[in-house]
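Changelog note: in this version the structure field was regenerated for every chain. One regenerated record is shown below for reference.
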Amino acid sequence: MDGNDGGLVTLSPAVSQFIGRPKQVLINGKWQAARSGKTFEVYNPANGEVIAHAAACEKADVDLAVAAARDAFDTGPWRRMTASERGRIVWKIGDLILKYAEELAQLESLDNGKPIAVARAADVPLAADLFHYMAGWATKIEGNTIPLSVPYTPGAEYHAYTRKEPIGVVGIITPWNFPFLIVAQKLPFALAAGCTTVVKPSELTSGSTLLLGEILMEAGVPGGVVNILVGTGPEIGSVMTSHPDVDMVSFTGSTGVGKLTMASAAQHLKKVSLELGGKNPQIVFPDANLDEFIDAAVFGAYFNAGECCNAGSRLILHKDIASDVVARVAEL
């Protein structure tokens, strides 16, 4: 991993120990191997070396994890806690992310290949911010009263109101481009609302999410509230999206898989949240300051190796400057 000064970062003893043992999965508050006993190799994308072995989950593991989340939702303490109690735990998760920030950044860089300076400056602290932010929202999820006017009962008074309740079990499926940050864009929202979850990170980049599992346990999240599985989309992702005891699916990834996710979830009329890829245009007119724009255009398109949902990967150029912009972008 490249450090801020261009040198190599030595893995901390904690990270070396973490990747040195088989990556188990978290089901009902306990770390365990896949039911089949199968594992698969995890590679360092920088040099192709095997850095870890992860549990290869299958349908049986999904069934166990969903059952744990269902039981935790139906009979466990999480949604019955006061909103303040949940908020304090979600806030503590944010604090612990900052406590283990260096370990998380090293794992993110090792798994994903991004410069550790980016993981230290962006992925990890932004994730902590999201947990802290949602901790405050736990006490602010409110319904409203509704004035009714019913023409066929003149003079009658009614009391009508809405009350927001947790959806239930939420399946969370995250990609490999921002593994830790994107799970933080989903999980604290579900937790603050009182939901329970089954989380599937990309099998390519599961390290930071598994370490988050240890952080959740340290923060006092009850068993079964967050279950973390590792495996491929066909083996476990599709099982999660079609599982009858999963009430909502939150997915970030490709448009093609997003369509499959929506179709699968429709079998049981699940709620679905999709964040998919796109082509984001940067529009340039002749009066633009091209000296400033060229740097911004290349950064916007190629930050994180271009693997951003909002990467500025399309240029729409006025014909008077088109050839100049293309040449300068290509040179940079």
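Spot check on this record: The chain has a mean pLDDT of 94. The two ends are 24 Å apart (CA to CA).
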